[in-house]
Write a structure and sequence with these properties.
This protein is an alpha/beta fold. The protein contains twelve helices and twelve strands. The chain has two domains: 171 residues, Rossmann fold (3-Layer(aba) Sandwich), CATH 3.40.50.2000; 147 residues, Rossmann fold, CATH 3.40.50.
C-alpha cells in the first residue's frame, strides 16, 4: 500500500508524522512523509500580519504542494497528522472522489482544540488519543469511523543506558498550561529544572529554558540526565491533577527511552502501563512530591521501573505497532487485501536496557 503522511506545520506533532512515516515500511507499506515543518516561520509571520490576501496566498501554497505530491506519489491512502494543513473541505472531497482513503490522527485534547468538529466528517477514518465522550461527540458531528489510537515511541531514539549519570534530581519539560503553572509554582529554584517556551513569563526561579521552544533533541537529553522526570499532563484548570483521560506522547517517549517518570494518573493509562511497576502514577500533588522525594535517591528502584516501562513499550507501543493498526483499519475499510499484507511487528533489540 502507498500511504502519504501529511505532517504538521509546527508543534510536537511534527515528530509524530516523521516517526510514523519511518515506521510504515516495517508494517508493509510504502510511505512518503510530506513535511510542512519548513513553513512554520512563514505561518507565524502570516498569522501575525492579519493580511487576508497574504493568508490566502499562503494557504494556496500549502494546497498546491499537497496536490503536486498526490499527483506524483499516487497514494492509495492519505493520513493527516494533527496540526497538518490537510483541512480544506473541497480538496478532501476531491481526494475521496478519486478513491483515496482519507484518515486523520488527532493526537490532541479535543476539549482544547475543537477544530475536529469541522474536520472529522470529511475523513473515512478518524484516529484519536481519547475515547468517550469524544466518540459520541464525533458521531454527532458526522464522523464516519472512529478508532482509538494512543501515542507511541519512536524506536529510532537512542535510549538511556543503564547506569548513565543523572545530575538533574527533578525536571519538567513542557508548555506552561494553567495547572502546570499552579503546581510548579509551589516549588523553589533548587527543587526543579523547568524547560519550555513561555515559562519566562511566569518568573519561576527554576526555569532553565523559558524564552523559546525546546527542541526534541534537547528534551530527550534532559530526560536522560534526570533522576526523576515529572510528567504533568496539560489542563486549563489550575488545580486539575489526576482526573484526565488521555495519555500524552511524553509518557510513551520517556518509557521507551528507559527514563524514569512520575505522572499524574490518567483514566486510560492502565490500558498501556502498570501505574506503579512501569510508570509511577499519582492522583494528588502531595503524592507526586512524596514520590519524587522517595525516588530521587532510590536509584535501583528507578532503574527497575524504567526498565519495565521500556520493555512494555518495545512490546506494544512503538510507531511500528501504530502503523500496523492504521494499515489494518484502512484495508478493512477498503474491503480488500490487494495492497499487500500488513506485517506484524517484531522487536529488534537496541542499545540500552
Amino acid at each position: 500500500m502507498r500511504i502519504l503522511i501529511v505532517g504538521a506545520i509546527q508543534g510536537g506533532t511534527v515528530a509524530i508524522g516523521e516517526a510514523l512515516a519511518a515506521a510504515m515500511p516495517d508494517a508493509g507499506a510504502q510511505a512518503l512523509h510530506l513535511d510542512y515543518s519548513g513553513f512554520a516561520g512563514e505561518f507565524a509571520r502570516v498569522r501575525a500580519s492579519g493580511d487576508l490576501g497574504e493568508t490566502g496566498r499562503f494557504h494556496l501554497l500549502l494546497k498546491t504542494r499537497l496536490l503536486e505530491t498526490v499527483l506524483a506519489f499516487r497514494p492509495e491512502a492519505i493520513l493527516g497528522i494533527a496540526q497538518s494543513p490537510l483541512q480544506d473541505p473541497q480538496i478532501l472531497s476531491q481526494l475521496r472522489q478519486a478513491g483515496i482513503v482519507l484518515a486523520y490522527w488527532f493526537t490532541e485534547d479535543y476539549r482544547l482544540f475543537p477544530y475536529w468538529k469541522t474536520l472529522a466528517p470529511h475523513f473515512d477514518l478518524f484516529f484519536a488519543i481519547q475515547t468517550e465522550p469524544f466518540r459520541r461527540e464525533l458521531e454527532a458531528a458526522g464522523c464516519r469511523n472512529f478508532r482509538y489510537l494512543p501515542a507511541a515511541y519512536d524506536r529510532r531514539l537512542p535510549p538511556r543506558s543503564l547506569g548513565d549519570p543523572t545530575p538533574f534530581p527533578l525536571s519538567f519539560v513542557g508548555a506552561p498550561y494553567p495547572n502546570r503553572v499552579h503546581y510548579l509554582s509551589l516549588l523553589g529554584k533548587d527543587s526543579i529544572r523547568i524547560y519550555g517556551e513561555e515559562w519566562d513569563r511566569y518568573g519561576h526561579p527554576g526555569t532553565i529554558v523559558g524564552s523559546r521552544r525546546v527542541t526534541d533533541r534537547e528534551a530527550q537529553e534532559v530526560y536522560r540526565r534526570s533522576a526523576v522526570n515529572l510528567n504533568l499532563h496539560s489542563s486549563m484548570v489550575p488545580k486539575d491533577l489526576g482526573t484526565g483521560d488521555f495519555v500524552n506522547p511524553r509518557t510513551f517517549e520517556l518509557a521507551g527511552m528507559g527514563c524514569f517518570q512520575i505522572s499524574d494518573m490518567r483514566s486510560l493509562l492502565p490500558l498501556h502501563f502498570h501505574p506503579a511497576d512501569e510508570v509511577v502514577a499519582v492522583r494528588t500533588w502531595d503524592d507526586m512530591m512524596e514520590a519524587a522525594a522517595r525516588y530521587r535517591s532510590a536509584t535501583a528502584e528507578r532503574e527497575a521501573i524504567a526498565a519495565n516501562a521500556r520493555r512494555r513499550v518495545l512490546a506494544e507501543h512503538t510507531y511500528q505497532h501504530r502503523a500496523v493498526r492504521i494499515l489494518e483499519a484502512i484495508q478493512s475499510l477498503r474491503g480488500d487485501r490487494s495492497a499487500g499484507e500488513v506485517r506484524p511487528v517484531t522487536h529488534r533489540p537496541t542499545r540500552g536496557f
